[in-house]
Design a protein that fits this description.
CATH superfamily of chain A: MetI-like
CATH architecture of the largest domain in chain B: Orthogonal Bundle
Radius of gyration of chain A: 27 Å
CATH topology of chain A: MetI-like fold
CATH class of chain A: Mainly Alpha
Number of helices of chain A: 12
Organism (chain A): Candidatus Contendobacter odensis Run_B_J11
Structural class of chain A: mainly alpha
Largest interface: A-B, 87 and 88 residues
Order of helices and strands of chain B: HHHHHHHHHHH
GO molecular function (chain A): phosphate transmembrane transporter activity
Pfam families (chain A): BPD_transp_1
Radius of gyration of chain B: 30 Å
Number of domains of chain B: 2
Strand order of the largest sheet of chain A: 1-2
InterPro entries (chain A): MetI-like, MetI-like_sf, Phosphate_PstC, Phosphate_Transport_Permease
Largest sheet of chain B: none
Order of helices and strands of chain A: HHEEHHHHHHHHHH
Helix content of chain B: over 70%
Strand content of chain A: under 5%
Oligomer: heterodimer
CATH superfamily of the largest domain in chain B: MetI-like
Structural class of chain B: mainly alpha
Shape of chain A: flat
Number of strands of chain A: 2
Shape of chain B: flat
GO biological process, one term (chain A): phosphate ion transport
Number of domains of chain A: 1
């Protein structure tokens, strides 16, 4: 037994004692559980990929890669294709990234470049963080009853005056890509902002002082020194925000209109992979479930790749500053 | 000998060599209407506008929730069962219970595993290959689409148990809570000062004793913050429940039957053409947002006490 290691020590008159057999058992058990828990997470992720991949396999062998380029989703005839969903997912996420990215980075600058006093900045940061706390379904509800009625007159005016531009090619009758992308932008804004804030905080203070010391204006310092220095961190923020947008489900299922079409128009209904899963899965028969599993695998692959790129960029950004210090 | 020479050199540096024309100093005064200053001011104004615009949605959501949801929120809404299509009145009592049960289950599953995994990552073996891969996968899981957790649990639990259930819903939420708990707990344990750990090791503690009696109590506020944030996220998350817990019009009687939740109720009712259901969707949203905000604020308060 391990407790015999200390048996030769003379402890006469001392209150101290070696760890008892119980202490050793506790130590081993404790570390064993910790190792098991860590290994469990690894196994869980592997299992998720294998499970979704395995369930998608029958559909993959049946439809092959044509599934990715076909545009019909017809349960009666057993024809399945997800090109409109892939298009809708990428298009809505890209729009959300443009809007959410511009606002997110602007807010990160606003929070870190001395626009506000410390206390006010903390309050404002909380407001932006709470934006991320509002559940997706609540954004969906808000989008249906507040945002869409608000956007409809503007959208229909744009369609009437500038209908020849493909982006305004249809009128907004109800749900559509534009409102969905706008809500998506609101939802990814906090992600982009908080990672960008961290990136800007990592820039050593002396870099900013040096820029101001040369007589730059505040925005010359931000645009020519701070943003380029924090560039890779901000890039990571944008990539991770994009990843968030790709997988977002409920608000989109409520706002995008679930229509199987490919259109450049901001006001036409569309569909995304996640929204397709949400709206079709609960009532799907076995044949459709197989096709949906394939769609889930495609979504998994896209988000895993985008997230891995984002994390790699972030790691690179952090390392750069650690090396400098 | 050297003294006057030095002064002469200093004078030369200060005044410039006498034979050259005196050098003019650059103008160091502020020029507020210079193009570059105006550009800076313009961008500053734009940033302020962007920041104010970005906070509009939060206030708009909260305002509408208070107006639309507040008018319908009463005892009946909190306790009654959901109404059918043309029925008046009703509420979402079963959905509140369902949400609490499933989030509770998810917490029971994810918190112990998450904290133990974090112990391994932060203290036992931070540089091992297992730790590196678990850390990476946890970060990747935070960006994992929540609906895929539903697909996974559907394939694993719903298909094998042949029924939608609260259990399946809880497991799906646990998958989503796990990475948040792991990363927050790891961060909190790494913040525990090294000298505290060294002191404990120095008096002969085993590793388990150091972690159990020193690291966990000291890191507790940070860990709890992570747990609270994970709970808030899970409570508002609905996508994974769509086809794991499904929905039910009745109160929960066992963990292995379809279960109602607030988020799914909002999703179902928001698309219905009946005013009664839409009002209830707003009221349920108000309850849901209040639950989520309470956990968020708790997390902030606990997190702040640390400093």
């Amino acid at each position: 037994m391990a407790s015999h290691h200390f048996d030769h020590v003379d402890r006469s008159g001392s209150v101290s004692g070696p760890p008892s057999a119980g202490d050793y058992a506790f130590d081993r058990g404790f570390r064993g559980i910790a190792w098991l828990s860590a290994a469990f997470i690894l196994a869980l992720v592997v299992y998720i990929v294998i499970e979704i991949g395995g369930k998608a396999l029958p559909a993959f062998s049946e439809y092959g890669f044509g599934f990715l380029t076909s545009t019909t989703w017809n349960v009666q005839t057993g024809q399945f294709g997800i090109l409109p969903e892939i298009w809708g997912t990428l298009y809505s996420s890209l729009l959300a990234l443009i809007i959410g990215g511009v606002f997110g980075v602007a807010i990160a600058i606003f929070l870190t470049q001395d626009f506000l006093h410390g206390h006010l900045a903390a309050v404002f940061r909380t407001i932006i963080e709470l934006l991320a706390a509002i559940p997706s379904v609540v954004y969906g509800l808000w989008g249906i009853y507040v945002l869409i009625p608000l956007l409809r007159p503007l959208a229909n005016w744009l369609h009437g005056e500038f209908g020849f531009i493909p982006f305004f090619g249809t009128s907004l009758s109800g749900p559509g890509l534009g409102p969905a992308a706008l809500v998506l932008a609101i939802m990814i804004l906090p992600t982009v902002a908080s990672i960008s804030v961290d990136a800007l905080h990592q820039v050593p203070y002396k870099v900013k002082e040096a820029a101001y010391g040369m007589g730059t204006t505040r925005w010359e310092a931000i645009l020519k020194v701070m943003l380029p220095t924090a560039g890779s961190g901000i890039l990571a923020a944008l990539v991770l925000g994009f990843g968030r947008a790709l997988g977002e489900t409920m608000a989109l299922a409520m706002l995008i209109g679930n229509s199987n079409q490919i259109s450049l128009s901001l006001f036409s209904p569309a569909n995304t992979l996640a929204a397709l899963l949400a709206s079709s899965f609960p009532e799907a028969g076995p044949v459709e479930v197989r096709a949906l599993m394939y769609a889930a695998l495609v979504l998994l692959a896209i988000t895993l790749i985008v997230n891995a790129i984002g994390l790699a960029v972030m790691k690179f950004a952090t390392r750069k500053f650690e090396a400098e210090r | 000998m050297s003294e006057p020479n030095l002064t002469a050199t200093a004078e030369l540096i200060a005044l410039g060599a006498p034979e050259e024309a005196p050098r003019r100093l650059p103008n160091l005064n502020r020029a507020p209407f210079e193009i570059r200053a105006l550009k800076s001011g313009f961008l500053t104004a734009l940033t302020w506008i962007a920041a104010l615009l970005a906070s509009v949605p939060l206030f708009s959501v909260i305002y509408r929730l208070a107006i639309e949801g507040g008018s319908r929120l009463d005892w009946e809404a909190l306790t009654a069962l959901p109404p059918s299509a043309f029925e008046q009145g009703g509420g979402f009592g079963n959905a509140i219970v369902g949400t609490l049960v499933m989030v509770g289950l998810a917490t029971l599953i994810s918190v112990p595993i998450g904290i133990f995994a974090a112990i391994y990552l932060a203290i036992l073996d931070p540089d091992s290959r297992l730790a590196h891969s678990v850390r990476f996968l946890s970060k990747a899981l935070t960006g994992f689409p929540s609906i895929l957790a539903g697909v996974f649990v559907y394939a694993v639990l719903v298909v094998t148990m042949k029924t939608y259930s609260a259990l399946a819903g809880g497991v799906a939420l646990a998958v989503l809570m796990l990475p948040t708990v792991v990363l927050a707990a790891e961060q909190a344990m790494m913040m525990v000062p090294k000298k505290m750990k060294d002191a404990a090791f120095g008096i002969g503690c085993t590793r388990a004793q150091v972690i159990w009696k020193v690291v966990l109590p000291t890191g507790a506020p940070g860990i709890l913050t992570g747990v609270m944030l994970a709970i808030a996220g899970a409570a508002g998350n609905s996508a994974p429940l769509l086809f794991t817990a499904l929905f039910s019009g009745y109160y929960l009687t066992s963990l292995t039957e379809p279960t109602a939740s607030l988020a799914i109720l909002i999703f179902n009712f928001s698309g219905m053409p009946y005013d009664n259901q839409i009002e209830l969707a707003w009221a349920a949203s108000l309850v849901l947002v209040m639950v989520v905000l309470v956990f968020n604020i708790l997390a902030r308060i606990i997190g702040r006490q640390k400093h």
